[in-house]
Specification:
With 121 residues, the protein is mostly helical. It has one domain. The protein has helices spanning 9-25, 31-58, 68-93, 98-113. The two termini are 14 Å apart.
């Protein structure tokens, strides 16, 4: 997909690893916090890839017949994995849930700053 080729994934992964490391430094350095931060980072990465794919398909210039069932399934799956990540964080680290949430917000900026063209049009 054209929109996925605009992302510099090496830069993105380095930015995400840096933020995960920094946020882990603010925690109590428990293994549970580290595992939740890494798991949520991977889930958010999958979520963002699905989002970019959906945006790419929906804005594709040649409006061929789209597989609407697959797009709806991907959109629902995207929401479900975010809820799974949030519930995973609440279950295992409880009051430190702000750390994965901050990491999620940072990953939104990371995908933008790692794009080769700062516009997705």
């Amino acid at each position: 997909m054209e929109i996925l080729s605009r992302i510099n994934f090496k830069k993105y992964i380095l930015m995400v690893l840096a933020s995960t490391t920094i946020l882990f430094g603010f925690s109590d350095h428990s293994l549970a916090v580290l595992l939740v931060l890494v798991t949520v980072s991977v889930i958010v990465f999958i979520n963002q890839i699905i989002l970019l794919y959906l945006v790419g398909v929906m804005t594709y210039k040649k409006r061929k017949k789209k597989k609407k069932k697959i797009l709806v399934f991907l959109a629902i799956f995207k929401i479900l994995i975010l809820f799974f990540a949030l519930s995973l964080g609440i279950h295992f680290i409880g009051d430190k849930i702000i750390l994965p949430v901050l990491n999620y917000v940072w990953q939104i900026f990371a995908i933008y700053f790692s794009s080769k063209q700062r516009s997705f049009h």
